[in-house]
Amino acid sequence: MDFDALFTDQIDQLKRDGNYRYFAELERKAGKFPHAGNHVDGEVRDVTVWCSNDYLGMGQHPAVIAAMCEAVQRTGTGAGGTRNISGTNHDHLLLEAELADLHGKEAALLFTSGYVSNWAALTTLGARLKDCVILSDAGNHASMIEGIRQSRATKVIWRHNDVKDLEAKLAALPADVPKIVAFESVYSMDGDVAPIRAIVEVAEKYGAMTYLDEVHAVGLYGARGGGISEQEGVAHRIDLIEGTLGKAYGVVGGYITGSAALCDFIRSFASGFIFTTALPPAVAAAARTSIAHLKTSQTERMQQRRQVARLRDALDRAGIPHMANESHIVPVMIKDPVKTRMLADYLMQEWDIYVQPINYPTVPKGTERLRFTPSPLHTDADIDHLVVALRSLWRQCALAHAVA
Ligand code: PMP
């Protein structure tokens, strides 16, 4: 059988639909973020990166770099095993203690990514809690959807951020089955923020466990970077808070925090925790430094907010519509996959601006967009340059009607 032909058929379909995924070949340069090299045809051009999830530039923070270098010299490169078989290093436990403290929980458990933490935790909870029903927000991330699916628990989807719908769905379930309400705080593509206090209250009323993904909020919100749950003062009422070390903290890895019993349960049963090599200790050391820094420093968060507001104002003045939300994510809706890609290509080729087009299936068809994530390190000049470029391309591409 010609397998390659089967593969190319489907790839060609993606290309015809405008949904084929290309990526830029970047060369990050320590201390230069958000500027990076972009490799094209043997040349390296300096570009401004506008779509990074290294939201605060912590991936190039001198203290985080120093912590990783020190730990590599001290411990070597890899962990040397799975967590249960020789892979648990002192640095992992220090990081878990730091994370438990960040969210005010008894315990924390590390995973190799935020994706794996969601998938492993939800698969385990859904599969091992007898008759469990997982109530999942319709906007939840693929890692949660996959975890729930593979758990084979009953799944009930509630309308995105709609507490009334959640309550109706909870009320319709038998009182004595375990229920888990799974949701996010900041949704990555629209940048909207969940009404987490109201969700927690409804979940408590029906005795449901709360599972909150704070991947796009940790480090960024709350006085110590504990996320929206800290900002809203409800972290202590949420049973499980999940996060990443790969976005605002600038490193890599994922985690859950919760009660000691919950973390021990996941540690004991989750295949995504048990059967994989632990994160390098140097990664743990770098992440701990980043978290500790953002627990006390407000500088990065405040400067990021200033730059987000500045970009929004400049877009308004240029007449470029962007989605309103309360977060640091600035989506500019194009609503067509081909136009979105074309605009991103022009920005890169003519203006040395890199923003990745966001197409289906990351977002629903017809809501294709450019998603800008201003960091504290984007200068006023970077913002002005971006808006001048967008205004010029807007006219060139006659986009006004496309986004109306
Ligand atoms: N949850 C959400 C909401 C995400 O957007 C992502 C990644 N984009 C993840 C989890 C996975 O996190 P990580 O990148 O650390 O795997």
Automatic annotation (TrEMBL):
Q: Which leading EC class covers this enzyme?
A: transferase
Q: Give GO BP annotations, semicolon-separated.
A: protoporphyrinogen IX biosynthetic process
- What cofactors does this protein use? pyridoxal 5'-phosphate
Q: Which reaction does it catalyse?
A: succinyl-CoA + glycine + H(+) = 5-aminolevulinate + CO2 + CoA
Q: Which residues form the signal peptide?
A: none
Q: Listed GO molecular functions?
A: 5-aminolevulinate synthase activity; pyridoxal phosphate binding
EC number(s) from the headed UniProt entry: 2.3.1.37
Q: Where is the Aminotransferase class I/classII large domain?
A: 46-390
Which InterPro entries does this UniProt record tie to the protein? 4pyrrol_synth_NH2levulA_synth (IPR010961), Aminotrans_II_pyridoxalP_BS (IPR001917), Aminotransferase_I/II_large (IPR004839), AON_synthase_class-II (IPR050087), PyrdxlP-dep_Trfase (IPR015424), PyrdxlP-dep_Trfase_major (IPR015421), PyrdxlP-dep_Trfase_small (IPR015422)
Q: Indicate the quaternary assembly.
A: Homodimer.
Output this protein's name. Answer: 5-aminolevulinate synthase
**Species this chain originates from:** Loktanella fryxellensis
